[in-house]
Write a structure and sequence with these properties.
By secondary structure, this protein is mainly α. The protein contains 7 helices and no strands. Helix content is 82%, strand content 0%. α4 packs antiparallel against α5.
Length: 223
């Protein structure tokens, strides 16, 4: 990989740390909707639109950084680096697909049309919104599984590095139980880990990606 490409990937990693923090922060700037009508009204909320677009950009930034890391890790751990990147591609594609549907179908079309629609169209739009909630729930499970496996592969691969690389590896490995806890809370009703997850996530994930950028940058200076 060219030095210019590594520099770009390093910057992408740092920017993905910023977008990760924003994805944690933005939902906390508005109240969680308690009713269906409040959820429909989210299409007028600028923080919701900002969160969706930040999420869209975030995937590309993270994948650029993960791809560069895979290239650099392939010398010492080709199977882990290649396999991990494939898992991250699955994570990125699944989340990107879901976010794109959320932006254009759910938020800009179904929610926006609902309030002024006649009764028969409202019934169909309500069905669409409820149906996609279930579909997005299933997609989110898949992307969590892919992210967990990608983090595991990269964590093991980075442990073969020295210095900063080893620290990056430990942070990737810490993301494995964190992701498992999110899955348990969201899909198995095990909420005992919700408190620690809420406290650890906004620190672990941004720091992990920023440190990945730090690790990539010197490798753009020397072969």
């Amino acid at each position: 990989m060219s030095r210019e490409g590594l520099r770009v990937a390093s910057v992408c990693a740092v920017l993905s740390a910023v977008t990760t923090f924003l994805l944690w922060l933005l939902p906390r700037l508005y109240d969680v909707p308690a009713t269906f009508d409040e959820r429909v009204a989210l299409h007028r909320n600028p923080y919701v639109a900002a969160r969706l677009w930040v999420n869209f950009v975030h995937i590309f930034l993270a994948l650029a950084a993960y791809g560069a890391a895979a290239v650099r890790l392939s010398g010492r751990a080709p199977a882990l680096a290649g396999g991990g990147f494939l898992w991250f591609v699955l994570w990125g594609f699944t989340e990107l697909l879901g976010v794109t549907v959320n932006i254009f179908a759910v938020n800009r079309t179904w929610r926006a049309q609902y309030e002024g629609a006649p009764a028969d169209q409202r019934t169909q739009l309500r069905t669409n919104l409820a149906g996609f909630d279930a579909v997005w729930d299933a997609m989110f499970f898949l992307l969590l599984v892919a992210f967990l496996l990608g983090s595991l592969c990269y964590g093991l691969a980075f442990l073969r590095e020295h210095g900063i690389g080893r620290w990056v590896g430990w942070l990737f490995l810490l993301a494995v139980p964190l992701t498992a806890a999110i899955m348990l809370g969201g899909y198995a009703g095990v909420t005992v880990f919700d408190g620690p997850v809420s406290a650890v996530y906004p620190v672990l994930q941004p720091v992990s990606r920023a440190l990945l950028g730090w690790w990539l940058w010197p490798r753009s200076i020397r072969p």
